[in-house]
Amino acid sequence: MSARAGHRTWLVLLSLLVALSLEVTVLPAELAAWRPPWLALTAIYWALAHPRRYGLALAWIAGLVLDVLKGGVLGQHALAMTVATWIALHFHLRLRVFPIWQQTTAIGVLIAIHQFLVFWVDGVTVGAELSWQRATPTLAAMIAWPLLVVLLDRLRMQLGMRT
Amino acid sequence: MNPLSQNDNKPLFERGPSLGTRTVLLAVLSVALMLLDYQQGHLETARRALSVAVYPIRVLVDMPSTTFGWTREYLSERNRLVAENRELRTESLRQRARLQQMAALEAENERLRALMDSPARLANRVQVAEILAVDLDPYRHRIALNRGEQAGVYTGQALLDADGIVGQVIRVNPLGAEAILISDPSHATPVELNRNGLRTVALGLGDVTRIDLPFLPNSADIRVGDLLVSSGLGDAFPAGYPVARVTRVERRPGEPFARVEAEPTAALNRTREVLLVWEGVEAPLPGPELTPDGPAEASPDDAPPAGESQ
Question: Does the CA dihedral A22-A27-A29-A30 come out positive or negative?
């Protein structure tokens, strides 16, 4: 049991590390606005998969690391990810049994809230203006979510982890 | 997502604070962090510690493009390399010829300055730093550098490339640094017109191909094609380096200021290497008498107050 739990933590940390790298990987300029919020999606995935083990604290710490990595205001992504993960945890019993398209829609709403919080803090600190580009990460997240679920579900299955 | 099972079900009795309480606590903590970080900047030690932990991620993300560069160099054809080498040799020869003149001119300049009793200009030390191929934030023009405290980088240090001013360092970590580009919307560069010494401030627009000069009156003597150089006011940048070239001048009779835009001379989004500048330690306060072209009186009276005008 403990070995398995160790495995889990290992995979969770690795997936978060990969998500962090994807958050700052260079994209072509035309695609830069289409970067899905990988870290938030990964944290939400683990919160839904193991709600009693990986929840708010993990999301908050991951958000803080992302803030340092991106060089923004400390606490910006931490706040957004805490709120998004909280909603995911609050509805996790329902979200987990949704069919994938319905789940994706719900995640879209969650990420929209996440993006709004990020934008809000941007607006207060550096003065951001609303443009259609602010909506693209949400759409990108809805494209990325099914892929993420398939990939991480398969990894968990192969490593013999059962929820 | 797997269907639910035993051990994730809600226990009959909740232990510890409830989900809502924990969320509120963490949210309040985040907001407190933001206030402390943004308003007072108290969290530099915490940020430094975390940034050391985060630096490997930046290097990791940078690795594919670095490896790609190496591989391309390694695999490129001999002919091409020879041609490139020859080209560089010619270029170097040409530059050296110009440098010979430069030495004579520098000496002459020093003599003239001594005659006029004005302080000598000190040479600047430069070092090459590499920009890590990392996208920090699409809405802010920030870059990550691979030189930090260990190389003597300091906050506020100017960054140049081969063609002009790129930006300045805003945050230094033990291993790396973060810099803001002159095109960031929250950045202002004190500049002057190379042709007549007219001083003003250039603001970033969030677009790497243009910067804004909002404080020039309609009567200002400025034309398309004029070169803007750093004025050295505000002590942020060394004086006399090219910043931008004016691309658009629109005089609007109904408005107090003309609409003037310029294109940065530095390749803001295309360079991979930048130069970090250490100004001479004993550098005097740069004043109008230190402008590279034209005497101090060249600045016309209708020029707006420079630097601090915003």
Answer: negative
